[in-house]
Specification:
A: alpha/beta; Rossmann fold; Alpha-Beta Plaits; 2 domains; six-stranded mixed β-sheet; 12 helices; 34% helix; elongated; B: mainly alpha; four-stranded mixed β-sheet; 13 helices; 66% helix
């Protein structure tokens, strides 16, 4: 799957439209390549343009500019061919309340020429025990698994999942991760969006970080974390007007410190070796007569990559 | 090739089964489809049941000759024994309709009444008759009367085909229009078009299910009307069923049109009410369209519900088959259906 210079703008609607001719840019020139058999994650905060991007890739929205090729074909020419070969779940779908699991899967199976059996598909998402239960009686995690079952029933080559685990409990998330990993291990390709770091780190071969409709970083989770320069993050909160008294340029001369940046009233240090850097940081604070109120450390994650790139938290 | 046709039919079958299951698993739709028309026919059937003619009610204003007039009227079977009333009481009773007419005991008597009220005019004729005869008028002849109660001419006979038409309109507009808007809100339409499903198949399944649900929708009301009120089907049941089918499909397509843009079910509810309310009152379900002035009737006559109800009533009560009126009604219904469908094709939003 390839996409080049993808751009999607919307006309402003509502009252603002009266004296405002400008457009809202949801996706602003995005390039993306996903290889066969790869699991690619689009990571970004709400409103970053992830859903718009995925829906353009899924052929549900027309791009304003740019070019999309899926499985070597284009939506305009080969829609039927592509629809038979991709599976997807939308960010939010409410399947019919009064249909049972098996009835719903059978309905979706009937739309495709080829695919798995209904029983096999229900087995994939471990809903056998709920096969005769109506959609309205399912838990949030079971509903989401049924939505994924509807995506898998055609045995697709490429699977699009838009925030598959948002709002689910940890156990349901892990179950869905297993389903997705299994699909990938059997040779399927996956494009998913998420704003959960752990999900991206665990599932995705490569991750693209999206913000304001632009791809601001792309690579394997390891590469992205390595790009921070250090593998640990130390966050220090000091009393009073502490941040003004700290000069990042000076702090950077301390041993094993690769970067430091004020984030939400704290100073965040990207650190190589924790046992070298930590005493140095504390000494620096003491020399400046600053009382440390709070100090925490953790291994660097994709969250820190996002903070480093944008100066904002992922879930502001 | 054969496999492709089989797959397509399989898809239409599954979509139709979805519609059908959502229909019968929803308690609300069951009430509106079956319970409501029956309840309405019971209530209206009781309110407008055929009764023995009631004697007219009048009063006599107090005065020297009042008692004499009261005694003359008392002898008539058509007039209930009148009370002698004071000036203020007679005004009040006349205004509120407690009495239809007041006799002022002048010589000759004066009748006080509001001639726009049919019952007052009837009272005037009967009271006048009684007084004239009582005071010595000789009748030219004594007529015989031949009393009949014609089945097919009662209010309940008029009402039942109207309720059938009304039911077809509601089920079509709500069953299709509301359901489609709900599917759009729930992103289900979008989910469906993200599969290779043929869009026509989904719309077709709605029509197929509407057509088949007539089989369970119509008999209960017709059988109930027959058993409870003796309402008979005078004409061909086959032609009646055909007109019902065309009407049901026509209203379904109108429902499709109303739902084609709506973002949510509330908007469709509003649209359906706007469209159906004028027909509810205007199309002759509860009373004849003859009560409206000619100019308005020209519009009313081409409304789909008017056409449907007129045709059903003629088949059921007059026993006709493909009379000119029925053919004209079918043409109007088909025109509404085809017109709505073409417009809906242009307007319908899938996402």
């Amino acid at each position: 799957m390839k996409c080049r210079g993808l751009k999607k703008t919307y006309k402003r609607t509502g009252l603002a439209a009266v004296d405002d001719d400008s457009e809202v840019v949801a996706v602003d020139g995005l390039d993306l390549d996903v290889a066969a058999g790869e699991c690619f994650g689009l990571l970004g905060p709400n409103g970053a343009g992830k859903t718009t991007t995925v829906e353009v890739l899924e052929g549900l929205l027309e791009p304003s500019e740019g070019d999309v090729t899926i499985l070597g074909r284009r939506w305009a020419k080969d829609e039927t061919y592509l629809r038979e070969r991709i599976g997807l779940s939308l960010q939010q779908t409410f399947l019919p309340d009064k249909l049972t699991v098996v009835e719903t899967v059978r309905l979706f199976r009937s739309f495709f020429k080829t695919g798995r059996t209904v029983e096999e598909t229900i087995g994939l998402v471990a809903l056998q025990e709920k096969a005769k239960a109506k959609y309205e009686t399912l838990s949030g995690g079971q509903k989401q698994r049924l939505a994924v079952a509807c995506a898998l029933v055609s045995d697709p080559e490429l699977l699009f999942l838009d925030e598959p685990t948002t709002g689910l409990d940890p156990q349901s998330r892990r179950m869905l991760w297993d389903v997705i990993s299994k699909f990938r291990n059997e040779g399927g390709s996956v494009v998913l969006t998420t704003h959960y770091m752990d999900e991206a780190e665990r599932l995705c071969d490569r991750v693209g970080v999206v913000d304001h409709g632009k791809m601001i970083a792309i690579g394997t989770p390891k590469e992205l974390i390595a790009s921070l320069g250090g593998s640990h993050i130390v966050e220090v909160q000091a009393e009073g007007e502490a941040l003004a008294a700290l000069l990042p340029a000076e702090l950077l001369t301390l041993p094993s410190i690769h970067a430091c940046k004020p984030v939400l009233g704290r100073m965040a240090f990207t650190v190589g070796e924790l046992h070298v850097a930590l005493p140095a940081i504390l000494t620096a604070y003491t020399e400046r007569k600053l009382t440390v109120k709070d100090l925490s450390t953790h291994s660097a994650t994709l969250e820190d990559v996002f903070v480093h790139l944008t100066g904002r938290q992922l879930r502001d | 090739m054969i496999d492709a046709v089989k797959a397509r039919l399989g898809s239409i079958w599954q979509l139709s089964m979805m519609r059908w299951r959502l229909f019968y698993r929803e308690p609300g739709t069951m009430f509106w489809t079956f319970g409501f028309p029956m309840a309405l026919s019971i209530v209206l059937g009781i309110a407008f049941r055929s009764q023995k003619p009631e004697p007219v009610v009048c009063g006599v204003l107090e005065g020297p000759r009042a008692v004499m007039i009261q005694e003359l009227l008392e002898k008539s079977v058509d007039v209930r024994k009148p009370d002698v009333l004071s000036e203020s009481a007679s005004d009040a009773q006349l205004r509120t309709g407690k009495v239809s007419l007041v006799v002022v005991p002048t010589d000759p008597p004066t009748y006080r009444l509001d001639s726009t009220r049919p019952e007052s005019r009837l009272a005037k004729a009967l009271v006048d008759d009684a007084l004239q005869r009582g005071l010595g008028r000789k009748d030219a002849f004594a007529p015989h009367s031949d009393e009949v109660t014609a089945v097919g001419s009662r209010y309940i006979d008029f009402l039942i085909p109207g309720l059938v038409g009304l039911g077809l309109m509601s089920s079509g507009l709500w069953g299709v229009g509301f359901s489609l808007a709900e599917m759009r809100t729930r992103k289900l339409l979008k989910r469906f078009v993200a599969t290779p499903m043929k869009r026509a198949d989904l719309l077709l399944s709605f029509l197929v299910v509407r057509a088949f649900s007539l089989i369970v929708e119509l008999p209960p009301l017709l059988i109930f009307a027959r058993v409870a009120f003796g309402v008979r089907m005078q004409g061909s049941i086959v032609v009646f069923a055909l007109v019902c089918l065309v009407g049901a499909l026509s209203f379904s397509v109108l429902g499709l049109l109303l739902s084609s843009r709506a973002e949510n079910p509330q908007i469709v509810s509003g649209l359906i009410n706007v469209v159906s309310f004028p027909m509810y009152l205007g199309s002759g379900v509860f009373f004849s369209t003859g009560r409206y002035p000619d100019g308005i009737r020209k519009v009313i006559d081409v409304l789909p519900l008017t056409a449907l109800v007129d045709a059903l009533r003629e088949i059921m009560n007059e026993g006709t088959a493909f009379s000119p009126l029925v053919l004209r009604a079918l043409a109007i219904l088909v025109a509404w259906g085809v017109g709505s469908f073409l417009l809906a094709l242009r307007l319908f939003r899938w996402r």
